[in-house]
Structure formats: C-alpha cells, structure tokens
Design goal:
By secondary structure, the chain is mostly helical. Helices cover 81% and strands 0% of the residues. It starts with 13 loop residues before the first helix and ends with a helix. 36% of the residues are buried.
C-alpha cells in the first residue's frame, strides 16, 4: 500500500507570489471602484473632465495590477520550469498576452483625459465627433478588459492550476477548484463581449466569483504554506500518475 508522501513546503518565493496575486486583485477591484461612476456616465467627456483625478487614479491602479501580474509570471517561471518547461513557457505567454491586452485598454482610458480637455472648446460637428471618439475609446477599454481580465486570464489560470495539480504543488482540492472555475470565467467574458449578458447582471457574478475567490484562497495558501509536494493517499497518487 502506498503511504502518504513527505510534505515539504517552500516559503520563498511563494510568499512573494502570493502577495503579488493579492496586490493584483485588490488593485483591479479598486480601479473599478474609482472609475465606474465616471465611465458609466451618459455624458462621458463631461464626466471625465469633471473627474480626471479619479480616472487617472483608476488607470494607475490598473498599471499596478499589470506590474504585479508580470511579477507573478517572472517568479513562477523558474518554479514551473523545474517540472515542465512547456507549462512554464505557456504560463508566461498567457500572462504576457493578458498584460498586453489590458494595456491597450489602459492607454485608451488615459486618452480620454486629453480628449476631455478639448471637448469644452469645440462645437457643432466637432463636439459630436469628440463624443463618438470618446465612446470608441471606452468601448476599446471595455473589450480589452473582458478579453484580457476574464478570457485570457482564464487561460493563464488554467495553465497554472493544471501545473499545480499535475505536480502537487498545492492541495489537490484547491487546484481542481481553479480548473473548474476556468470555463465559467471564460464564458462570462465571452457572453458580455457579445452582449448576451449585461455586465451588471447578477448571473455574471455566479460565473466570475468561483475563480476569483479561488485565486485569493490560493494566494493565502502560498503566503502561509508556500509551494511544495502535498501528501497523497493511494487513490490520489494513482490519479496523479494517470494525469502524467
């Protein structure tokens, strides 16, 4: 009978990775809080002009989120590479695509500020053109947000949780939780992008929350316990052999 394997936890750099996940999530949530009232206004450019500080703060929080995301990729790459170079590279590529996509939205959001400066000085057709351009920039930010923060994020989460599950670096239940949450998160971005689901719909939370909560639980695990081989029962060992 196969016994339970020895558990060995590695606190560093797992703690730093965990805190980076926390920073990325908190910064992302605060950015939405800072910008939602401005970007949701009917008169977009007037709202941006009146609330430039909150919009810029929100975009800077997004930049902080992106920086933390890059940090997780940098720190996780050598750890994952020890087990699978393919999965390690796949995670870095998915994270890079995620950061790049969201960065497009960041630039689009910042461009609303100088556009709002000129809005009060134009008139007639120019004013209408400026309003159309503003809506286009906002739409670009929304689309890159749904694509990057939900759909591409789902891919990076899938690669990471699959690697953790396959090589037993976090508890099996926690990694499986992440794998199961991936298609729900991906579907949420897809449905909102194609206007099959309203961004404010309660159903959206049901799709987003499982993976979002799992990432925070995983971050807490990394901070407290670190990364390392988990104890396995005979049944779990057989399942893991099958995964490989």
């Amino acid at each position: 009978m196969i016994g339970r394997c020895e558990v060995k936890y590695f606190r560093e750099p797992a703690q730093r990775i965990g805190w980076l996940f926390v920073i990325a999530t908190v910064a992302g949530v605060l950015s939405v809080v800072a910008m939602s009232s401005t970007l949701g206004a009917d008169d977009l450019l007037s709202a941006v002009y009146a609330n430039q500080g909150s919009l810029i703060l929100g975009q800077m929080l997004i930049f902080l989120m992106l920086t933390a995301m890059v940090g997780t990729a940098v720190l996780l790459y050598p750890i994952l590479k020890k087990h699978s170079e393919t999965l390690a590279l796949g995670y870095v590529l998915a994270r890079t695509l995620e950061v790049t996509t969201i960065s497009v939205g960041l630039v689009a959001g910042l461009l609303l500020v100088p556009l709002s400066w000129d809005f009060s000085t134009v008139g007639g057709g120019d004013m209408a053109s400026a309003a159309v351009l503003a809506e286009s920039l906002k739409m670009a930010g929304d689309w890159t947000g749904y694509l990057g923060a939900q759909m591409v994020f789902s891919l990076s989460a899938l690669v990471l949780n699959w690697a953790f599950l396959r090589y037993g670096l976090i508890p099996r239940w926690l990694a499986l939780w992440g794998v199961i949450g991936v298609p729900l998160m991906f579907a949420s971005g897809l449905l909102v992008m194609f206007e099959s689901l309203n961004p404010s719909a309660s159903a959206l939370n049901l799709l987003v929350v499982p993976l979002a909560v799992q990432e925070m639980v995983m971050a807490g695990w990394l901070i407290v316990k670190g990364l390392g081989r988990q104890p396995m029962s005979r049944h779990e060992y057989a399942d893991r052999v099958h995964l490989t």
